[in-house]
């Protein structure tokens, strides 16, 4: 996307009165004002990880029921530390992960380039591996990675019983269990268990602060005190011991205070939104019903035409429907990801059908 197109979309979305997918973008001034919800701006800033950063670490450890949590500037760095820890403790440099996971798709195979680790894939199916697939691994592994939810497969989750069985199978073969929980915040409704109950199935858990809860940036790696000590050493060695990170910490705390309690409501409403969108001509929704408050939507039109229609609807009617369309390997179908958050809660099935008809009608011009 060009800079001009991105700026045009930002302006159009910011001016919208109604938003079905996503949230209204904020300026830097908005974000600074929002930090009051995370802590007292008259307090001292952090100094290499104390103050609000420590407060955030303690909050995450409490939410996940772990002995400790360590703040990282990026999830990529946090995940590499977790995998290195597994390799060091087990003596096995192989990591079992999914080819659609963040480590393969979004982190440029950092585990291989920086830590000399290699991967094996328990499955290539668009879901997390099963207990049977983990048990059948042909070589010893230091860590088994499970992504909750598996974003690039459509934000899909296993059932609770499947997740518990996969965790037990990993431990039975002598591997650590690591949850790539960038969006684990939104997984509790489908799994019908609390964050601490979910994290208890893993030896380490990574969570993101800008995904789901809307922080500026940052992540945490949670687990034992031994893991935390290792993580702090390798965070420093990796260049993550930043002088001050109070904006990221306060915005994360604000998100935990404001957004996290509302996520189950978003997940429930996503089921209504998905069912309504599935009635559009030629539409496909996956998964149906959604496992989280995010899901995928396909329509039988070119991606550019759909993006143009979405932008025109926003600029002319102040309504944001669904944008970010991409071509797919399904002939004639384009796909986008729908995120149901606070702005979508007021949309009824009838609202979605009525605006959807107007959106589709705009495609006739292409």
Automatic annotation (TrEMBL):
Residues 27-288 form the Aromatic amino acid beta-eliminating lyase/threonine aldolase domain. One of its GO terms (biological process) is glycine biosynthetic process. One of its GO terms (cellular component) is cytosol. Keywords: Pyridoxal phosphate. InterPro entries: ArAA_b-elim_lyase/Thr_aldolase, PyrdxlP-dep_Trfase, PyrdxlP-dep_Trfase_major, PyrdxlP-dep_Trfase_small. It comes from the Bacteria. Its cofactor is pyridoxal 5'-phosphate. One of its GO terms (molecular function) is L-allo-threonine aldolase activity. Belongs to the threonine aldolase family. PANTHER family: L-THREONINE ALDOLASE, L-THREONINE ALDOLASE-RELATED. This is Threonine aldolase. It comes from Micromonospora inaquosa. The lineage of its organism: Bacteria, Bacillati, Actinomycetota, Actinomycetes, Micromonosporales.
């Amino acid at each position: 996307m060009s800079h001009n197109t991105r700026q045009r979309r930002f302006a159009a979305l910011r001016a919208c009165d109604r938003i079905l997918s996503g949230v209204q973008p904020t300026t830097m001034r908005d974000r600074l004002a929002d930090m009051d919800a995370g802590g007292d701006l008259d307090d001292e800033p952090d100094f290499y990880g104390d103050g609000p950063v420590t407060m955030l670490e303690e909050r995450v450890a409490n939410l996940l029921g772990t002995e400790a949590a360590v703040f990282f500037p990026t999830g990529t760095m946090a995940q590499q530390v977790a995998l290195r820890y597994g390799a060091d403790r087990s003596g096995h440099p192989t990591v079992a992960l999914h080819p659609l996971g963040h480590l393969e798709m979004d982190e440029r195979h950092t585990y291989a380039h920086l830590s000399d680790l290699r991967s094996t894939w328990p499955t290539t199916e668009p879901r997390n591996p099963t207990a049977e697939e983990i048990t059948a691994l042909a070589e010893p592994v230091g860590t088994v990675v499970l992504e909750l939810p598996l974003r690039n497969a459509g934000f899909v989750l296993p059932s609770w019983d499947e997740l518990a069985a996969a965790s037990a199978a990993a431990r039975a073969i002598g591997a650590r269990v690591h949850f790539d929980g960038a969006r684990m915040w939104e997984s509790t409704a489908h799994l019908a268990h609390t964050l601490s109950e979910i994290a208890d199935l893993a030896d380490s858990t990574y969570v993101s602060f800008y995904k789901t809860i809307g922080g500026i940036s940052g992540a945490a790696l949670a687990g034992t005190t031994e893991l935390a000590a290792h993580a702090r050493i390798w965070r420093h060695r990796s260049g993550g011991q930043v002088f001050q990170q109070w904006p990221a910490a306060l915005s994360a705390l604000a998100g935990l205070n404001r957004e996290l309690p509302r996520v189950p409501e978003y997940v429930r409403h996503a089921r209504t939104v998905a069912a309504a969108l599935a009635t559009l001509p030629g539409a496909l929704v996956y998964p149906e019903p959604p496992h989280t408050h995010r899901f995928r939507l396909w329509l039988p039109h070119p991606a550019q035409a759909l993006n143009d229609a979405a932008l025109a609807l926003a600029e002319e009617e102040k309504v944001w429907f669904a944008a970010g369309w991409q071509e797919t390997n399904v002939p004639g179908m384009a796909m986008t990801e729908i995120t149901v958050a606070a702005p979508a809660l007021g949309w009824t099935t009838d609202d979605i059908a009525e605006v959807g008809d107007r959106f589709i009608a705009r495609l006739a011009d292409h």
